Amino acid sequence: MKYLLTSLILLSCFVPRKAQIVKINKSNDIDILYAMNEKVSDDNISVFYLKNNTNKTFIIDPFGFWGNTSIYEDEQLLKPYKFQLKGYYDRPSDKWCERDLIILKPHEFKKLDFFNTNYKDSALYQFKMDKKYFEIIKSVHNKKTILYLGCEDYIRKLESKDFVVLEDSISAKIPIFPKKFTEKN
Question: What helix, strand, coil percent values describe the chain, rounded to 5?
Fold first, then answer.
């Protein structure tokens, strides 16, 4: 609780006043904080922050969370209207791994430009402005999921320097605020 309070105090310096902030992961070592503006704009609809509460350096793959995601409309499971086809993403060299993986140093607080809470989810949904929506996410991040996209040699090198692969899970219910599209969108 002490670390969550510290994270929330730090967030007050960086996050807009109207943002709703939710800790979405189980671990106490790292806080994965999700901030969503209740007034959705053309800028960031959602923002993630990472806070390391330990003296360890963690390796986190922003594509490394794998699991199940469900979207609900007014308490009813919403079926996707279409699935987005994805190719196989691979990291062929250490250079790609260095670019993609997040290295979170001891007690570091970091705002993320991109973070995927469930890499497997490829569904597209249609939202209506007069309905209420939320997303239920259940996913895990561990050494097995981080290696799906490559980087085994690179991670081994980092582990030899006492870096640690994050072992964590996300279990969260997150509100979704549909954006009203106009002709210029």
Answer: 20, 35, 45
